[in-house]
Recover the amino acids of this structure.
């Protein structure tokens, strides 16, 4: 059977996107649409003392102004972290006169046009009684508290006897690493259109990574049965974690639409993206690493402090990676949160693992330099053959091969280990590496597959393609199971009318939705197979189902390929317009006999200008074990994209919060630096493909976030190698190097 899986199929939605036919949330044409604008709080903590909406209400085109005085009461939402809810920010705005973060909406103005709404929003007069906001993690670290369990992760962890192992270690290293607040900043800003019909049903177009989760949050907030809410989002212009829970702006839009009896659109500005949809928490991470002379790790202690808030929480679980990455018998980790007044942090681009790997993989590099031993050799000496946390076997692990292939492709053997030893003219050259690691999450997912009378198929699942290629890889999976060419398979995503998926987050789609699509398409195929086997008029009559294979729209007897019949002929003879199959995967409740984790090895060459402290990436390589690769092209794009995030994290991205005013100092893409093409020269990614018989029916662990994880440390390690300067605080700026 020809296999669509593994091919480098072009994006099936590529043409729609480049021709502008892909419709994003803000672009849906809804009859009678009105436009909303937010009035953001100018203070970060305190209360509203006076609120005058009269000028705004009498401005041209204004239909209404919603404030805490007239808005509906919304109970605290259930948390996605600890209560299987849909929200990170569980406390909503417009509920009372309290201000808990700068930019908190204090009013929503709705007008006939966008410009009228914007103008009237400026006319809302608000006076505040301001209190000094808590903005600095260090200042309140003494108030840090444990977090609620998240996906089984608790605040404190220990195995063995770390204090004793540290006291007996030949070599001991103790350092603090920090990472800053970062904002997701997808290209597509968030937007919602909400429209109620006469029967009290709500339809919402929202930019979301998970239509079903957004629906759940809306139904909860509005006090509606879930089937009264429909959420539609066929295309997403990048999510990065910002769009995988329901945020207040979406709920407020639905309320405004109900309040006014008109459909309402709210499109956030870029500046509002810094106050409306979470951020990656700042972290302070203390590491203590103990080892024997030969580099064998004997103890790792990894304590992290991150941001909490009064309005909702997402713990940045930085030390997770430390529990599993190396075969170290004595490990202690903890995460503590500090309540600040800067909004709720959320998950962003490999949450936990990205900042945690920066700390751990920097510390390993420091240990390698101190011993000294080659950084790859150090990692091989501590290679975890089984999961050191649970003792369970890995479902698959090709990390050793990733190191080996990466080292060979990068020509690592030519590296002079001494810092400041390699130069190119006046520039310092540094080579660094780090391990990449990210768990492979299995989330509940279901799909349907419909084989139609014309021999084409439609596959549906209520999840999202964030731009990563999900439409394309699901087309391939369906195409293989159905024996249809990819152009005869249509995949439909992003609508709550489709079967449930938790959504596209945690690099879970290929692992979770993939098997659901496979089951649904196999089910549909098998139904048609059985129609033929039981039908005397079919050339397949009387054969067993095992004997039947599919290709190019035909069913045939594997050992007698001339005995064949098409889907079209079988459906026609039975007078069927279509045959439907279903697939349901509940991986969360699947008993785990194996630990599932993706791995990789990342290599970076930097050039540092010693006069200006300027760091440029010269080349970067990642070699990854993500199990089976469903699409070589989209997987490689994801890996490269993840590495670009890592470049941003290491060198550029940093949201600075004003210490007195509690707001982002430069909430725009001029002040928030993201990598651009000039920052990303030769970058390459490769995969070690191994059979993973345990992860799922596809053998695919999931890609995407894994490629973010090792990158920041690999860059910091390369900067150390170039300059002899160890930078432990991200981002690495030229000020730090001078
Ligand atoms: Mo991801 S940061 O779980 O969208």
């Amino acid at each position: 059977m020809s296999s669509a899986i593994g091919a480098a199929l072009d994006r099936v939605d590529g043409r729609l996107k480049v021709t502008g036919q892909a419709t994003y949330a803000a672009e849906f044409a809804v009859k009678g649409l009105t436009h909303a604008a937010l009035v953001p709080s100018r203070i970060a903590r305190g209360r509203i003392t006076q609120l005058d909406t009269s000028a705004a209400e009498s401005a041209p085109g204004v239909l209404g102004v919603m404030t805490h005085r007239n808005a509906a009461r919304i109970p605290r939402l259930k948390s996605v972290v600890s209560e299987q809810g849909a929200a990170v920010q569980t406390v909503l705005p417009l509920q009372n006169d309290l201000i808990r973060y700068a930019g908190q909406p204090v009013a929503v103005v709705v007008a006939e046009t966008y410009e009228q709404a914007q103008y009237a929003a400026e006319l809302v007069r608000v006076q505040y009684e301001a209190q000094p906001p808590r903005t600095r993690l260090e200042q309140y670290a003494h108030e840090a508290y444990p977090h609620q369990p998240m996906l089984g992760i608790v605040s404190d962890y220990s195995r063995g006897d770390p204090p004793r192992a540290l006291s007996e270690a030949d070599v001991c290293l103790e350092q603090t690493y920090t990472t800053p607040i970062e904002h997701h900043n997808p290209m597509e800003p968030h937007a919602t259109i909400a429209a109620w019909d006469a029967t009290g049903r709500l339809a919402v177009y929202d930019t979301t990574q998970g239509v079903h989760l957004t629906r759940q949050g809306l139904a909860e907030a509005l006090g509606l049965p879930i089937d009264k809410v429909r959420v539609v989002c066929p295309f997403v212009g990048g999510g990065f974690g910002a769009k995988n829970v329901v945020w207040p702006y979406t709920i407020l839009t639905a309320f405004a639409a109900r309040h006014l009896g008109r459909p309402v659109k709210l499109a956030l500005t870029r500046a509002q993206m810094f106050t409306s949809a979470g951020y990656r928490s700042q972290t302070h991470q203390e590491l203590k690493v103990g080892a024997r002379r030969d580099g064998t790790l004997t103890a790792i202690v990894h304590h992290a402090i991150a941001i909490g808030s009064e309005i909702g929480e997402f713990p940045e679980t930085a030390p997770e990676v430390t529990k599993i990455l190396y075969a170290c018998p004595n490990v202690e980790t903890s995460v503590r949160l500090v309540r600040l007044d800067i909004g709720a942090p959320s998950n962003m681009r490999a949450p936990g693992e990205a900042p945690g790997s920066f700390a751990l993989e920097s510390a390993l590099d420091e240990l390698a330099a101190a011993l000294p031993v080659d950084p790859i050799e150090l990692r091989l000496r501590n290679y975890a053959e089984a999961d050191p946390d649970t003792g369970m076997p890995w479902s698959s692990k090709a990390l050793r091969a990733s190191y080996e292939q990466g080292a060979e492709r990068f020509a690592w053997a030519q590296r002079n280990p001494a810092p400041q030893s390699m130069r190119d003219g006046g520039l310092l050259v540094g080579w660094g590496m780090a391990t990449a690691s990210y768990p492979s999450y299995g989330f509940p997912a279901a799909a349907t597959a419909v084989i139609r009378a014309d021999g084409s198929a439609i596959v549906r699942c209520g999840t999202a393609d964030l731009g990563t290629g999900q439409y394309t890889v699901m087309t391939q999976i369906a195409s293989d199971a159905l024996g249809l060419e990819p152009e005869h398979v249509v995949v439909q995503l992003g609508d709550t009318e489709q079967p449930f998926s938790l959504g596209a987050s945690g690099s879970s789609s290929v692992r979770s939705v993939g098997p659901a699509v496979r089951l649904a398409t196999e089910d549909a195929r098998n139904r048609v197979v059985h129609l033929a086997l039981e039908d005397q008029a079919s050339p397949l009559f009387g054969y067993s189902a095992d004997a039947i294979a599919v290709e190019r729209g035909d069913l045939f007897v594997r050992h007698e390929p001339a005995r064949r019949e098409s889907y079209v002929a079988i459906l026609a003879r039975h007078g069927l317009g279509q045959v439907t199959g279903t697939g349901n995967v509940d991986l969360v409740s699947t008993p785990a006999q194996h630990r599932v984790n993706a791995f990789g090895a990342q290599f970076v060459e930097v050039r540092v200008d010693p006069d200006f402290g300027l760091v440029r990436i010269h080349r970067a390589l990642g070699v990854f074990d993500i199990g089976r690769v469903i699409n070589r092209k989209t997987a490689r794009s994801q890996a490269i994209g993840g590495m670009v995030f890592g470049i941003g994290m290491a060198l550029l991205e940093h949201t600075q919060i004003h210490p007195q005013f509690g707001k982002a100092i430069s909430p725009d893409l001029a002040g928030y630096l993201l990598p651009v093409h000039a920052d990303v020269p030769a970058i390459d990614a490769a995969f070690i493909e191994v059979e993973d018989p345990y992860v799922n029916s596809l053998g695919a662990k999931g890609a995407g976030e894994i490629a973010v994880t090792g990158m920041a440390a690999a860059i910091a390690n390369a900067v150390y190698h170039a300059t002899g300067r160890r930078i432990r605080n991200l981002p690495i700026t030229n000020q730090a190097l001078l």
